[in-house]
């Protein structure tokens, strides 16, 4: 019987689901690639201890070998088996926030192949919040290296369908558990420095991490060390749709301007119900208006799916209203800026 406790009030996974998980576990143990649902985004998983399997992840994504992978574990015990030491902040984060959407970077054990860490001295580990993901890890009996299941620099997938569109035949099996609850990638915290640093903002805010750690945590998302950024995948060219995306200071004026130029425009906006926006939409069949969720969590959940959907509409330009710059919006602002390929570092 699985050790993982199914959340109270939910029926235990039926035998048919367990049979699919066993099939996926077999693929993993055979060195194959399985696209996995998590509570953040879908991941492209392989046995983290099998260097050849991990190499196949890099090939399928077209990912540079210099960008290390996150290793997914069933619990903190498995995480510690991958670490040379377990710094106090990592222990506290694991205790308070796992399973959940936060990754800790810790000194790496020699059992982790070089290719996973891009040759670095640290390894990133996370225990995913979705019980199904942990069940798979348990049944495979292996930690899973899994980056987001998209081609390198493309928008992360938040449904199994996005994975199919982006990676299709490059994956041996895709597990479909419906849309991801958070919709953006985990918060990444470097626990090898004092104080710990946030390398990538995510669903759990800095104050939430500070409460878990019991002390200050700094923003390290633009940290540079010896000429390379600490979180190599946090480069500016990331999460970008194929259609050019802009975040103008005055979105209504910019959208009107683009329409005057004869361009087809998709606009993700907090102003969907404004009379001006409605008039513009009524007068232009080249404009698609997508209402933005005024709640940061709802906005995050829908963001990548909206970008995927608009990208399929053969538009000339995407315009996104930039949300406020206060803490609850930091992670989505980060993703939007990367989608616009803007650099603010
Ligand atoms: O929510 C998530 O984290 C998703 C799901 C699938 O778990 N995974 C994900 O993986 O977003 P990926 O590979 O797309 O992004 C991992 C980020 C990259 O920015 C990478 O550079 C950074 O974590 N990273 C991985 N290992 C690291 C390490 N040892 N030190 C610093 N940064 C690391
Ligand atoms: Mg990614």
Task: Give a description of the structure.
The protein has twelve helices and 16 strands. The protein starts with 14 loop residues before the first helix and ends in a 6-residue tail after the last helix. It has two domains: 15-229, Alpha-Beta Complex (DHBP synthase); 245-340, Rossmann fold. It is of the alpha/beta class. Strands 7-1-2-6-3-5-4-8-9-10 form a ten-stranded mixed sheet, sandwiched between helices. Bound molecules: threonylcarbamoyladenylate and magnesium ion (MG). Magnesium ion is lined by residues 147-148, 156, 233.
Which features characterize this protein?
345 residues, Rossmann fold, ten-stranded mixed β-sheet, four-stranded parallel β-sheet, globular, binds threonylcarbamoyladenylate, binds magnesium ion
Summarize the structure.
This protein folds into two domains: 15-229, DHBP synthase (Alpha-Beta Complex), CATH 3.90.870.10; 245-340, Rossmann fold (3-Layer(aba) Sandwich). Helix content is 34%, strand content 16%.
Strand content: 15-25%
Regarding CATH, which class of the largest domain?
Answer: Alpha Beta
What would CATH call the architecture of the largest domain?
A: Alpha-Beta Complex
What does the main sheet amount to? 10 strands, mixed
Total DSSP helices: 12
Q: Kindly report the spatial arrangement of strands forming the biggest sheet.
A: 7-1-2-6-3-5-4-8-9-10
Q: Which homologous superfamily in CATH is the superfamily of the largest domain?
A: DHBP synthase
Shape: globular
Q: Mean of residue pLDDT?
A: 93
Distance N to C terminus: 49 Å
DSSP, total strands: 16
Strand and helix order: HEEHEHHEHEHEHEEEHEEEEHEHEHEH
**Structural class, judged by helices and strands?**
alpha/beta
Approximately how much helix is present in the residues? 25-40%
What ranges have pLDDT less than 50 throughout 5 or more consecutive residues? none
